[in-house]
Specification:
By secondary structure, this protein is of the alpha/beta class. The chain is built from eight helices and eight strands, in the order E-H-E-H-H-E-H-H-E-H-E-H-H-E-E-E. About 30% of the residues lie in helices and about 15% in strands.
Amino acid sequence: MALDPLAPVSVLGISSSPRKMSNSELLLKQVLAGAEEEGARTELVSLREVLMRPCQACRSCEKTGECIQRDDFQGLRDRMVAADRVVVATPVYWMTVSAQLKLLLDRCQSLWARKHRLKRPLPPPANPPRIGAAIAVGGSKVGEMFFGIRLTMRHFFDVLSVAQVHELYYHPYDQAGAIREHPTALQDALRLGQLIGGRSWDEEVAGAGFKPARTKEEAMKKYECQICGYIYDPAAGDPDNGVKPGTPFEKLPDDWTCPQCGAEKDQFEPLD
């Protein structure tokens, strides 16, 4: 099939939270909104509304590449394979993904069998390379909660032949809507959507320049000028130069410079 060089980027968002307006789903919607700003065609699928049976480990898919159970999985699978960008959002339950997402991942064993057992590669998307993003929000203060999720999602995206995986992981935000208390999370998600929603493929889209802070404390970290020793404190900002209190260092304007010596932002290092 010939690729259409003018086709808009398609972004499929998959929400796996069992509750509506969850923190992870709020971020997912921000990603999709950012992608739409860049002209992307977006779709949001909530696994709350998808009827799938659990994998039966019958191994039939190793012979055909298809799951013998017929339900909503097949339609969702085809949309995942066809999408240029796939963004998956999950709450953190028991230090791993939600039950709804785990069910989908298990059913994707048929895609794994197709790719690795039968050696049938997935067709390329309309706007290659395929890009993925994982969103996870947990209520615990234990930062290690994302270790297992990171490994699981990277394996999933490998099965989908995703070239690059972005991550938005935040904690501790438990109550619905609490993620709004994070000083940069919603803007991080919007920015990620803008990056992956466009047709260009550059270093920042490839992941080198997108490293959001997980916690409120990380986002409000102080930075020190390596030239003169000036310390930028996000809580205080830099009002004399138009920077409001509460502005994280990462959100400073690109042309902001040290108020004392004029050094550029790349001359600052985070304080431990």
